[in-house]
Every structure is written in structure tokens, then in C-alpha cells.
Amino acid sequence: MTLRELLSPTRALKTATESILLTWKEIANLFGLSQDIYVNPLHRPLSKPVTAILIGAGHRGNIYADYSFIRPDEVNIVGIAEPNAVRNGRFARKHDIPAANRFYDWEDVFKREKFADAVIIATPDNLHFEPCMKALECGYDVLLEKPAAPTEEQCRIILETAKNYGRIVSVCHVLRYSPYFRQLKQILDAKTIGEIISVQHLEPIEYVHMTHSYVRGNWRNSKQTSPIILAKSCHDTDILRWLINEPSRYVQCFGGLSWFKQENAPEGSTERCTDGCAVEGECPFSAIQIYLRDKKRLYVFDLPEDTGKWNKIILRNLFNTNYGRCVYRMDNDQPDHLTVNIQFEKNITAAFSMEAFTSYEGRCTRVMGTKGDIVGNMETYTITDFKTGRETSWSLKTDYHGGGDHRLMQDWVQAVGHQDAQVLSSTIDVSVESHLMAFAAERSRLNKTIEPVMLNK
């Protein structure tokens, strides 16, 4: 072969990047993928709707239960257990729950003879384990809000108990059902960028979400609920395990609580934002700004339909609940930033960051393969082919949790209706592994060690 032939443009690597913007349909055709990312060959018609009882009628519980309005032929909500009288009554009216099937204590559900196929557990983290165990003992299948339980021992017990009773337990790893991650999974499984070598993954919590849930809110103290790597980011350990599709082996974690502490309280600040705080007007974490002026995250206040009453109720909550307290004067201990390094089988590595101080939410992912790389941010993707230099991009728009909440419900209903756990994208076995990764990360952070992920004990 001559030098002229070797330098021929038809043989040479392109030096100028060729950029193409396509739809997912065109991407699927280009790479030989399925255009419908939700096709599940295990789905089939149900002979009757699955009946379910909701335990915990908060924000997440209502989202899952509302699937019954979209597909009443698939699921029917027949009972409610919720200690908050306003939420209990509101949910019962919305779903036409008879008085006999309304409970204020979850334990009372299981004092009755079994009256549904399954239960949906959407209680606070420290109230996941006991209702789940009782449900399994009483013969119910379970949809369990993440995290499955706040301790490693309890997670292992749930897994063992579900197997012993032959019951279905699905943990709400809803990101697996979002268009963003479904498309990414297809791209990687098809070896479009070759073999996976490494992944970088970012979870930007967003500063308002951080202060609302993990500084002022119910998840602010890890000893009372669960570590933030578990409470918030077991979604992400699960996603990394799913995308890489290899067992995790070792975890190393750095990070901690840097900013939301007493010593960082500005001069002139007060115990509550409503106490005449001298810096309230310039504080980005002001409860008055977030809840009263901007009307964000209001679902915690159980507001009535009459919006004319909202300001009075919001103010009353700011004067009397943790949501009105100064972010620098709480009993919070959750880290506001984490960096987690994970080693998987085949020497595949992943670097995961959880960050509170961002102006945006969502996830950002970079996957490095042997033939190319791919970059995504929940709304756009770009694949770059090493050989040709071609960049192929597409965009997508999704709703809360990336469109995954009701897709999760669809799979769970199918699994319960046909008594087939394999319908689920994430069985309880795989879910527990992602939790073990999170527990290992927390041990590493606290002990400054590299921790093994002990899948079997």
C-alpha cells in the first residue's frame, strides 16, 4: 500500500466533527434499537384489577395511588392508613374509600383479615421495615418506597422474608423507568460505544430541595431517618449498578456537612426567618422567600383548595414548624456534598457526586466506552464515535422523576397481577444490592476507609 493510499480521505479519521441532531426514533433506527423503550414482553392483560392499600398518604404515596385514575382496569385502591386526619380524609374522598377501610394506625390494617392483593408503603424511612414485614406475614405483595429500610440488617431481613414467603417486593427505584435512563440503557446494552470502562454521574439536589428536605425537613437527621446517600441517592447507586450490569465490589466515599451549621449563621440572623431576621431579604435559603413568596414545596402544609387561605396557613407553619427555622440553627447532620468512587467487576469504575449547592435538579451522566462516549443531562444526549468523530445528539423532555413513577406502577401491577416478579426491572435482590452500596459508602465516609460491598453474609 502506498503512502498516497494511506493518506486517502476515504481511509483517514475525520478531523472535523460532524454533528447530527436526531429524534429518538431516528437514533433507534440508526443503532438498531427499539423505538418503544417501554416494551415489556412479559406484560399481558389482567383478568381483574389488582387491589391495593396505601400506607402513608403523603406526596409520594398519592403519586403512586393516582395511577389508579389513569388505569382503573389495572389497579384499584381499596384502603388507606394515614395518621394525619386531613390527608386521610382527603385521600379517602378522592379514592372513594369506605369507612371500614380507613385507618389512622398502619398496624390496624393487619388486624383485619386480608382484604386486598397488595400494599403500597410510602411512610417515613424509619417506618418502612415493620409495615413491610407485617404485610409479608399477612400474605400481601408490597410496593415499598425507597429506601427499603434504614439499616443494612433490616434490608437483608426484608429480602430473606420475601423469599421465604414467596411474595413480591418492589422498591421504588423509579429512575429505571424514566425515558432518559431507559434510552441510555438501550444504548449501552447494544454496545454502541463499545465496552464500558468508566462512568461519571452527578446528582444535583438543588439548593431549595436540599434545605427543604435535608436541612429543615423530615430527612434532616440521619440518626432519625437514614443517611442521605441512602435516603436520596440509592436511586443513583441503583442506576449505576443497572447501567454497568456488573456486581459492585469496593466503595470509597468523601464528603460531609460543610455549610448548614451554627458557626456559619450570618450576623443578625435569628432562630426563625419570621423573628425579624436582619438578613432574611438577602438569604437564598429564606423560608419566607421559598414558601410564602415563591410558593415552592407547599405539599407539606396540606393546603386547602381555596388559595385565598394559603398565605395565612403558610405563615402559621413558618411560625410553628421546622420549615420556618433558620437553616443554620437546625439539628441536621446530613452531608451537603458527597463524592463516591465505586469499583465494579471487570475493573469498571464509577465516580458519583451528590451536590446540594446547585441551581438545578436532575442527573448528569458521562459514560466512557472503548468505541466512543456518551454525555447526558436528563434532557439531551450526545454520542461521539471515536472512529468517525461524528457527534449524534437528541433531546427529550420528561416530568417529575423523569416520567418514571407511573411506569413503575405499571410493572408492579403486572408483577402482582400475574404473580411474576421477573416482570419488574428491579427485583428485591437487585434493590438490596444498591442499598448495600450506599451503606458501604456511608461506612467509608465515616471511617475514612475503602469498604467492600458484602452481597452475601
Features:
Gfo/Idh/MocA-like_OxRdtase_N; ten-stranded mixed beta sheet; 16 strands; alpha/beta; Gfo/Idh/MocA-like_OxRdtase_C; Rossmann fold; 457 residues; six-stranded parallel beta sheet
Written account of the structure:
InterPro entries: Gfo/Idh/MocA-like_OxRdtase_C, Gfo/Idh/MocA-like_OxRdtase_N, Gfo/Idh/MocA_Oxidoreductases, NAD(P)-bd_dom_sf. GO terms for molecular function: nucleotide binding. Residues 185-415 form the Gfo/Idh/MocA-like oxidoreductase C-terminal domain. This is Gfo/Idh/MocA family oxidoreductase. Residues 53-172 form the Gfo/Idh/MocA-like oxidoreductase N-terminal domain. The protein has 457 residues and is α/β, with parallel strands linked by helices. The chain folds into three domains: 50-167, NAD(P)-binding Rossmann-like Domain (Rossmann fold, 3-Layer(aba) Sandwich), CATH 3.40.50; 175-260 and 333-452, Dihydrodipicolinate Reductase, domain 2, CATH 3.30.360.10; 262-324, no CATH class. The chain has helices at 3-6, 24-31, 59-65, 67-70, 85-95, 106-109, 129-137, 152-165, 179-189, 207-215, 228-231, 234-244, 287-293, 310-320, 405-418, 428-447; strands spanning 19-21, 50-55, 75-81, 102-103, 118-121, 141-144, 169-171, 196-204, 248-256, 337-344, 349-355, 364-369, 372-376, 380-385, 391-395, 450-452. Strands 1-15-14-13-12-8-11-10-9-16 form a ten-stranded mixed β-sheet, with helices on one face. A hairpin with a 2-residue loop joins β12 (364-369) and β13. α9 (179-189) packs parallel to α12 (234-244) and α13 runs antiparallel to α14. The longest helix has 20 residues, at 428-447. The chain is globular. The model is unreliable at 9-16 (pLDDT under 50).
